Amino acid sequence: MAIAILDPDKEMVNVLSQVIEDIGQKPAGFSDKGKFLDIINPKSHNIAIISDVFKDVVEGVKEVYPEIELIAIGQGDGKNLIRVGATCYLKKPFKVEDIQQTIIVLLKGPKGDRAQLREEFVMADPKMMDILKIISKVAPTQAPVFIQGESGTGKEVIARYIHNHSKRAKGAYIGINLAALPDNLIESELFGFEKGAFTGAYTTRIGKFEQAHEGTVLLDEITEISPALQAKLLRVLQERQIDRIGGKGPINVDFRVISTTNRDIDKYIKEGKFRRDLYFRLNVIPINIPPLRSRKPDIIPLAVHFIRKVALREGMEEKILSEGAKKALLDYSWPGNVRELENALERAMILTDDTEITESCIMVGMEASLPDSLPRAGLTINEMERHLILSTLESVGWNRTKAASLLGISIRTLRNKLNEYKEKGQNFDTQGVKTSNNKILYP
């Protein structure tokens, strides 16, 4: 199979041909539209790189040969090219590694290695390309990494990538979601405990830091831990020793730490909710992941990737995105980020009977992701907050994990808010479930 090229600039065709050869692929370059159309064929070409000067060719090739992946290149914004059939758009001048990375991603089809498919980075946005360069440099080192970004942007995926490409890749990768655990359990989870240390400690338990010895520990949503636990964590990072609850002495541990948060860390530090000295220990290499709504070039490549992923997992034929579906994907704001996009494409793959995913099938999931209406004018901030939380919960069938993700808060924060409403005896209107004695039951 070859990668076809169509660009009016012969020098550009020659450069792209060399770039393609450098990654072990066969190029077929043209500057003449007629000659290109004479040879293009899915039996011979799996990818085509086409200049935006030939928008009609992009549209025509995609209509006749939808299985060929199209990379559009040029100096516009690329939105129109994506809508007429291009999988992604690279703006000139682009870097060699950008086009190579895009080609490598598109070459990963349903017959590819499952682990590679799960771990593959799919990106076309320059901001994400820059992040990939950073983590590629950082991964082989021992430096702590601090990853910030909204829920669902892929923080854990990046953390696992760093571990898998580090000198500790043969060691354990241990992750702990600190937002999902009550305060009284976090310490025992992190540091472990000895048999008999407290009621219910029937056996010795190894903590996460010991489990990550000679490997990597991921402290997911690090900003959710209490000030007291922050102080203990700072000591562990400084001394590289942990004390099990009920233990007789310190235990040496060797680990690399990666931390994540979906919070505004600077605000948390100013408000005294997070220790500045702990932040400096964790934030040697900062990585800020932009939300999906600000990286539009990534949306269609990611959508294609998730279609392939579902097809591989379920043994299904790949389906094609209609132009209406692509427009819907590009126009939506994606409050749940990449995670919501993946859910939407999985749902569309399963529910669509035809070979083409339509706009209406995409919109079913997206409309269900947000509350149906806005609060009326005159409500207080607290009332508006309660309305937003409860209406979001109702829209996702009271799935707290999904609701927390859409709201951009932790599960713990959501749980605390619900308990607060319960203590105040506030009615849930139609969002809650009332018993015969008018008490509210919380799902």
Quick structural summary:
By secondary structure, the chain is of the alpha/beta class. It has 20 helices and 18 strands. It folds into four domains: 107 residues, Response regulator (Rossmann fold), CATH 3.40.50.2300; 162 residues, Rossmann fold, CATH 3.40.50.300; 77 residues, Helicase, Ruva Protein, domain 3 (Orthogonal Bundle), CATH 1.10.8.60; 61 residues, Orthogonal Bundle (Arc Repressor Mutant, subunit A).
Q: How would you describe this protein?
A:
With 443 residues, this protein is α/β, with parallel strands linked by helices. The chain folds into 4 domains: 1-107, Response regulator (Rossmann fold, 3-Layer(aba) Sandwich), CATH 3.40.50; 127-288, P-loop containing nucleotide triphosphate hydrolases (Rossmann fold, 3-Layer(aba) Sandwich); 293-369, Helicase, Ruva Protein, domain 3; 381-441, Arc Repressor Mutant, subunit A, CATH 1.10.10.60. It contains 20 helices and 18 strands. The protein has helices at residues 10-22, 33-39, 55-64, 79-83, 96-107, 114-119, 126-138, 155-164, 183-191, 208-211, 227-239, 265-270, 276-282, 299-314, 323-331, 337-351, 359-367, 381-395, 400-407, 411-423, and strands spanning 2-6, 26-30, 45-51, 69-74, 88-91, 145-148, 173-177, 192-193, 205-206, 215-220, 241-242, 251-252, 255-261, 285-288, 320-321, 356-357, 433-434, 440-441. The strands form 6 sheets. Strands 2-1-3-4-5 form a 5-stranded parallel β-sheet, sandwiched between helices. The protein has a 5-stranded parallel β-sheet with strand order 7-10-13-6-14. Residues 109-119, 367-374 and 429-443 have low confidence and may be disordered.
